[in-house]
Structure formats: C-alpha cells, structure tokens
Amino acid sequence: MDNNICQVYEDEIQLLEGEIKLLTEKYEDIQQESTFFSDEEILMSINSLQKEFQGESKGNESPSDLKARLGSLETDLSFLMKFTGIQFRSHSKKTVEKTGNRTVQKHRLSGNCHSLFFQLEFQLLEMRNKESVSAVITDLNIVVESGENSDVSKFVSSAGEHGNLLTFFRSLSSYAEWCEHRRCTFLHFK
Q: Does the keyword Transit peptide apply (predicted)?
C-alpha cells in the first residue's frame, strides 16, 4: 500500500516538474521576445496606448458601443466558421528576429476543418519601408490528419512547397466538405 502511495506522489511530482519546465520555457520565450524591442519603442507603444485609452474614455466609444462591436465581430466570426468549416483551436507567435525594417516571426496554428485536423508552422518575414509593408511566408510546414484519405498528402506537400496559405485553406475547406458529404452518404447506405 505504501508503495502505491509513493508511486502516486512520484507521478504527481513528475507532472509538476513537467509543468514547471513548460512554464519556464514560456517565460523565457516572453523574455526573449521582449528583448527585441528597444526602450524607446516600448515607451512609444505605452504612450500610444495611453492616448487611445484616454480618447476612448473621453466618450469616443462607450462600453455599450464596444459590446455591440464585439458582438458584431463574434457574429462575423461565427458566420465565417460555419461558411468555411475552419475552426482554429490554437495559435502561437514567437518573434525570431527584429531589426529596424525587418521582422521574422514564427507562427504555429492548429485547428480543424469539418472532420480533418490540421497543423501549420511557418515563418512570416515582414519588410517595412516608408510607404508600405510587405510580408512573405517561408518555411511552411503543413500536417493534415486525414485518416484513410491518403490523396490529400500530395496537395499538402504542394501547398507547403509554394507557401500559399490562401490556396491551402480554400482547397482544404472544399476537400473537407466533400469528405464530410461522402462520409454521410456511406453512413446512409449502411
């Protein structure tokens, strides 16, 4: 009996150590990301946020207007999720490099489209000049768990090579929708 109790405690200790390690990594990532910004940039950001907040508190937008706007945005998001079938479950962003006019960020997305689960990992390179900002996706890695549908792997590898996220999401939405129709049809005949 004592061995079982000790084993339970040891398992709990290992879980807590894993959680501490994960939180430490997250903290280090946040610390690393914050070091990419200079003190001047941080102060400018704080000042602009304070000005925005003061402008809103003077009556530009009341809390009821903000709630209505939030409700409208939630309705739009819900419509888009129903329309495309794409639901994002998680997103993480990490700044890898930041210079005066160049920023490289690493993104990770996961979600599902109807019954297909997907994960994306890519780097977003933003170049800024005085008039515009251009963004390029590099190192796109796509994983789609398609189960018995192996014909999606060619498409996924092609989309990964070309780095075109818009085409990927459009095609994934269409493909997943027809997979769902096919599944329902086969269930109907069983």
A: no
